Amino acid sequence: MPCRSCRDCGIFWVFSPILTPYQLRMKTDELREKYLAFFETKGHTRVASDVLVPTWDPSVLFTPAGMNQFKDHFLGKVKLDYTRATSCQKCLRTGDIDNVGRTAYHHTFFEMLGNFSFGDYFKRDAINWAWEFLTDKKWLGINPDRLTVTVYLDDEEAGEIWAKDIGLAKAKIERLDEGENFWPASAPSQGPDGVCGPCSEIYFHPDEGKSVEIWNLVFTQFNRVGDPPENLRPLPSKNIDTGMGLERTVATLQGVPTNYHIDNLMPIVQAAAEVCGVKYTLDSDAGRRCRRITDHVRACTFAVHENVYPGANKEKYVVKRLLRRAVLDGHQLGLRDPFLFKLVPFVVEAMRSAYPELTETTERVASVIQQEEANFFGTIDAGLNRIDRVFEDMRKENRVKVEGGVAAELYQTFGVPPELFEALAAEHNLTFDWEGYTRAMELHGEASGKVQHTVMGAKGPLDSLKHALHSTPFLGYETTEAAAVVKGIVVGESPDDHLCDQLDDLSHKAVRVVLDQSPFYGESGGQVGDSGKIIGKDFEFQVSDSHKDGQLIVHLGQLTKGVIREGDAVQAIVDTDRRQGIRRAHSATHILHHALQKHLGTHAQQQGSKVDCDWLRFDFTNLSPVTAEQISAITQDVNKHVDEAKPVKWETLPLAEARKQGAMMLFGEKYPDPVRMVSMGSFSKELCGGTHLDNTAEVEAFEVLSEEGVSAGTRRIVALTGPQATQYSDQVCTAVRSASETIGCAQLALASNVSDLLEKQRDLKKLLTSGGVLPNSDAGEMATNLSSEEPKPSQAKEILTQVAKMLSVSPLAVPERVVALNEEVLALRDRLAQRAAAGPLSADALLAEATKVGDVQVVVAEAPTADANLMRQLIDQIRQKVSLSAVLLAATEGDDKVTLVAGISKDLQALGGHAGNWIKPVAQALGGGGGGRPDLAQAGGKEPERLSEALEVARHTIANMIEGKS
RNA sequence: GGGGCCGUAGCUCAAUUGGGAGAGCGCCGGCUUUGCAAGCCGGAGGUUAGGGGUUCGAAACCCCUCGGCUCCA
User: Fold this and answer.
1) What sign does the dihedral A667-A673-A679-A685 (CA atoms) show?
2) Which of residues 459-498 of A touch strand B (CB under 7 A)?
């Protein structure tokens, strides 16, 4: 009985003989090439591997299979330039991540060979060619005796072809149910709805060990509609989608016991062992770790190469997790410093013949990995402290099992890996509650929200329109106003809503209208949708936003007058002012992109972008914050290009031609072919479907509002264009002028003056609390410098940014903050002046006014101009001089506040004196409250006019306290 | 996108939970010593990330902003 699923054959090689030098029959690069070449001879177009991280496809984070890049081909959504394709696709799946390294065949990153038919050939050819490729001496030449196949129970057609065409004995054709031989698995009974079909798998049987599934042929021929029975409708155009795991097939051809021993993975495994300082063996803990490191570093290398850096969400998070798992393996093997990055060159070397582009980014990739590694080692160090604390608590309470909940909490908040926790627990003879840990993590997963599954081919109200119209031609590149015909009206936004023939309800705010053609730009590529209006003979429709649904442009808005009917002839009019603002922002975005690459390096590629009316947000790759100087230089560079008034042109040309001309292409971006290329002067060429200016001069002005981090390795710039930029620039100048006037200094010297002012504030505060007085040299007003030289706008911005940083406020809040700061300094100076006038405060002076209660020296006095800290110091001095003493001082602050501090000497405390109890009734007499410790208490009140009354209370209270207790 | 944690001296961290901002290391000066993390004495160094609020009183409690860490999807 052949092994049906690789999930079962995890540890078979544990029993196989010790690793021996393998016989190389066919190299990995050779198989890859042969496969593609073979299907080329069968009329297939060789298609390059799609990117690993397809940002164009919201339904997946990583390319999970060879067919992914052909989804739209299968669904007939795109124009087919070919109906047969073959590819070798790099893929990444994390579903079986826990098995990586432990089993012979699991990977996260792997390559998938495939051949595809889009409504062209079907089962017969697919099966015959598969057999030919596998067994023909000219190709793989596998002994047919070593191969068996499986087919779906009800798939007579496939069974027939295997038996009759190929001539396989019946015993070699196994019939399996929908759980095994259907795609998606169990689709007929359990769904999901949509495209599906039976499949047929080919198994290889080695001399020893379990058999291996090396090729899966999927025959997509049905559309599932609801639950059985009769729920599988034949598709008008049937497709073929096959997948042959490259590593796995090579492993069988090379006769090695695990994929990790094939010719292009073994060198990485060996390198990992060397870096980790262990001897690699097949069946050992260290061996498993080396294989896991190999897999994960390969995955990380490809991901980082595509500018997906380890981060906090989505695909970035997956990369981070992969990287950390590998690093943790190294840590468990005793490493304490970054090591993974050293393996990057080995990955590149192994993969370069198929992916030569890797060699261009090796250094950057290694450095990104190294940095993240260093971070994680830091996290581990911090985690060790926390773990020690947990152990300490457990020792105190005599517990021996690490609670899963505690481990989960430590993991969730501080990233302390549970494996590490467990290992350390074992060293302390403590056990670890994995079950509780898993439970707690599941709870956390639920609390963090569920994922919304997007079902392939889900139906909405616009789908019938999509079939009828296919697409809405966009006229907006040439015009902002056009005649059109209403093709569809939908009220409401939920998928349950349906098309209606006409609408007269003016109250609906979310009405969608589709026209046969439109000048409105539907939101896409980061550019917001147009607004405007659609006017018919007897109605008016206000368009608040436009977006794209498939190839349709959907106008979203509200009917403001009359009745709109399907079939009405209308005039579609875009709000041109807003459109112009969007064009300014979009063209400026391209110029900015160019400037960033020029000033920061070519890695500073677009990660995301949003273009609105004279407002743009641009995310890009950069490891560190962009400095103020760089921002300034970039801003000037952008404005220089604006001033140079370069023409903006666009043309539609073949993708290959655009690439040849050096157009900027982004990883993960899916470009149509032919493609629209926007170029500005000779400095910028980008593939872009957005609306642009005719000349860079129309941008008018460009100002950066902010630069900030959005996640590790990604920075975000928000900027303004046109009138918005000019206005902002004016505000900046005004702010600098106003702040300078406040403190009476030259605008160009604002930064140093604010810095001085801050220093002054600190000095005065210190002086006030230490009981000093204003030195004569400081008595005068700050020298005013009325030099009225205006800074240039770019200077003003630099000055303001600098000052804003000093004051920790946003730039435009600087004037307000400077006013407050200035007032505070004046107030401080004022109080110090008062103190100087009132004469010095000293412990001796206060003691001179002390009264004696028994043997105790009691001081109850006003200490005008002192603050709480100074009063404490005076009390300390008195307590040091007189061993039996009680002191209570009061200071009024403004019109509505009194501060009290009371102290009791140590000897008096021993006799029962308590400062807290003393001060309470006094504070109450002032309409306040307070308290403190026996030796020192602090309180306050809000009625200074009752101060003398309160001081009487103080004298009585302390007298009673001393007499009562002693 | 959602959850959790943190931000105190140059560094690592305390602060009896709302009552006087500290320790160790490092730094500077002096003395004593020439042994490997030397000893002793003295000193500087703080807007407790920033802003607002509650309170007689906030490092601590509440809100906002900034920065960092971390998990989940």
Assistant:
1) positive
2) none
Residues 11-70 of A with CB under 7 A from strand B: none
d(CA A418, CA A715): 32
Strand B atom within 7 Å of A878 CB: no
Q: Is the CB of A371 under 7 A from strand B?
A: no
Instruction: Give, as ranges, the nucleotides of chain B with any atom within 7 Å of a protein CB.
Output: 1-5, 13, 19-21, 47, 49-52, 55-57, 65-73
Q: Which pLDDT score is estimated for A17?
A: 35
Give helix A750-770 / helix A722-743 axis angle, nearest 10°.
40
CA-based nearest residue to A27, from A351, A263, A268: A263
pLDDT one-digit tens code per residue, A483-498: 999 998 888 655 556 6
User: Is the CB of A659 less than 7 A from some atom of nucleic acid strand B?
Assistant: no
Residues 905-934 of A with CB under 7 A from strand B: 923, 928-933
Cα gap A408→A927, rounded to integer Å: 50
Would you say the C-beta of A897 is within 7 Å of strand B?
yes
Strand A45-47 and strand A84-92: pairing? parallel
- DSSP annotation of A914: -
Q: Helices marked H in A352-433 — which ranges?
A: 358-397, 404-414, 418-427
Spell out the residues 6+ positions from residue A148 whose beta carbon is closer than 8 angstroms to its own: A2, A168, A172, A173, A174, A202, A203, A205, A211
Alpha-carbon distance of A211 to A228, in angstroms, equals 34
Quickly count: other Cβ atoms within 10 Å of residue A561's Cβ: 13
Q: What is the pLDDT of residue A22?
A: 37
* End-to-end alpha carbon distance in chain A: 99
Quick check: A568 and A664 in contact, CB under 8 A?
A: no
Q: Which residues are paired to A938 by β-bridges? A: A901, A931
| Region of residue A74 (left: phi > 0; alpha: psi -120 to 50; beta: else) | alpha
The nucleotide whose C1' lies nearest the CA of A931 is B19
A249 CA to B68 C1' in angstroms comes to 46
Sign of CA dihedral A735, A736, A739, A742: negative
pLDDT band (50, 70, 90) for residue A297: very high
CA–CA distances in Å: residue A650 to residues A33, A50, A647, A901, A925: 38, 26, 10, 77, 82
CA at A378, C1' at B11: how many angstroms apart?
15
Q: Is the minimum distance from the CB of A451 to strand B below 7 Å?
A: yes
Inter-CA distances, A414 with A314, A387, A404, Å: 19, 11, 15
Nucleic acid strand B within 7 Å of A940 CB: yes
Which residues in window 313-352 of A are less than 7 A from strand B by Cβ? Answer: 313-314, 317, 320-321, 324
Question: Residue A774 — pLDDT band, cuts 50, 70, 90?
Answer: low
Q: What is the pLDDT of residue A16?
A: 34
Evaluate whether A585 touches A721 at the Cβ level (below 8 Å): yes
Alpha helices in A853-946 (DSSP H): 868-881, 906-910, 915-925
CB A537 under 7 Å to nucleic chain B: no
Strand-by-strand arrangement of the A851-853 sheet: A851-853, A856-862, A885-892, A898-904, A936-941, A929-932
Distance from residue A843 (CA) to nucleotide B57 (C1'), in Å? Answer: 24
Q: Decide: A403 and A436 in contact? Cβ < 8 Å.
A: yes
Helix axes A868-881, A750-770, angle to 10 degrees: 30
Print burial letters for A191-219: b (CB count within 10 Å at least 16), e (below 16).
eebbbbbbbbbbbbbeeebbbbbbbbbbb
pLDDT tens-digit series, residues A192-222 = 787 889 999 999 998 877 889 999 999 999 8
β pairing state of A232-245 and A481-491? unpaired
A377 touches strand B (CB under 7 A): no
Nearest nucleic acid nucleotide to A758, CA to C1' distance = B47
